[in-house]
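User: Hello! I'm new to structural biology and keep hearing that structure can be predicted from sequence alone. Could you demonstrate with RNA polymerase I-specific transcription initiation factor RRN3? Please show me the input and the output so I can see what each looks like.

Assistant: Of course. The first part below is the input, the amino acid sequence of RNA polymerase I-specific transcription initiation factor RRN3. The second part is the output, the predicted structure written as tokens.
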Amino acid sequence: MAVTPKSVASLMQKTIERQAALARMRLRFTKSQVEQILVNYVSNKSTGPYHELVKVLKEYPLNEDNFRIVFNDSLTCVVLLGRELTQFVDVVCNIEWLSRSEELVELYRRFVLDLVTAHTYHCPLVMMRLVTLFKGEGENWEDSPPSELLNKWSHVHDIIGHIVAIMPMTSDLLMHIVIEQFPYYKAGCYVNRAYIYNLIWMSKYIPSLRENIMMAIMNKMILMDVNIVENCKNKPQSDTMFDMEMDEQDEVSETLDYCMLEVLKWLEDEREPTMNILCNVFDRIILPTYGIRHVQFLLLYTISINQQCADRVLDNLWRVAAGLQGQGPGALTTRRTAASHLAGLLARCVRVPNTRLIKYLKSMAEWCHAYITATQESTTASDNLKAHGAFHAICHAIFYLVAFKHHLLFMNKENVNFVESLNLPRLVTCALNPLRTCTPQVTRAFASTTRSHQVVYCQAIIEKNARHTLQATAVQQYDEWFPYDPYTLPVSGKVIWPLCIDYKDWLKQGDDETQYSSMKRKLEEDDDYLVMASPTQRLASSLSTGISPGFRTSENIFI
């Protein structure tokens, strides 16, 4: 039989492994041997045995007896482990210890704590070795990690907690290492989920880091979210490349799905303190980010179960959109994004009471009318669209809410009178012409709703804008991002869907549905399809131009 290169390589590998196993079996440390090598290196500059020791510890795993000798000797001479022995310290701290007996785990713990107490400059190295233990390989879990894994992680957290308790200033160092060691967002579901799970765990015994940890997690999840959306928009033409990209994208979608689930559990477990921090993080990280599809639903969840947060969030969004608080560079984009978030939350969130909808519709209409009055003398009002971007965004929010919440706003005479008090015809017919920049989907829904209830007649303005668009040399770009269009991630969606309202066409009869009831019905009807379809395919469908953005339902995200 011919010997192939592959079989030769396999035989060579087995030979190498056998030799390594024999070497491990022959490896024997005697009591005080390691201590003597270290003392001779520090006192007599005896480098040969020291470098051989470092090489052995780096290349060969230790049995329990050798582990005990190495760490007992290291404990005995911990005062000698200065900067010149950093290489030894690094190798020793990297020795596998979590799967050892409780006695040896405690021995490792004592060594590490004594080491950082005696030599604080070793803290970065020690912290880095501890944090990287949260990034191991493993299998994704359903409800909670296996008890054996939790036990291992608890030992790591115990050491980190003691180091920070002994030296509180190391918390800043720890946070720097946590951010630096965060897994790559495409590294896989398990490694990212496990890391986030442990960061949340860390926040419970180091509360001073809670906000920084939340920011680190949100930054990573936003990166995943942006990647998912961008990949859906830029699908490759090649079938082979498409399959490869879809597999990669499915993995990122799954990763974000389970990371969202962990943060939702965190919010549920700790409630008020964590929710208040999320509101801060939303203002600083999520609000300035345009185009994401999933992470912002953490805010919807928060305002659904905490009314104080709801008041704070909605009021802050309104203040940002209206320019009632100072804004730095990029203020216009942030104001437009705030208007989109405000409209989306008022429209989609089940637990936002109708009184809040009425309050903010009134505030938005009053602000727009004041803006129109202030700009009536301007001769460039209808041409300089960018200068009036915030006005257009708030008008679009009003149009969207009137169309989306028509079943409430036109349910009785009192509510119709309220809608009439908004003086919508003035907004539609003013020289600033907000319908000109409004997305066609919202324009059609708003025009149909208000015409049917004889509140506003938009057709003449729509036709005029259409003629203007045909004559224009540049293609009209519309803002078709609606941050709270139906949530598409299937696992965390089970928590999110019951809190979201599906859009109901005013021409159709029937009770309102939450995304949960609609999604459940759709899942039952199309079970065979859902077995075949990946989360990415479902998200790609939800981003398709065939469904009106802003008015998508849980049904048509599966089309």
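User: So the tokens describe the shape?

Assistant: Right, they're a compact way of writing down the 3D structure. Reading them back into a model, for example: The two ends are 57 Å apart (CA to CA).
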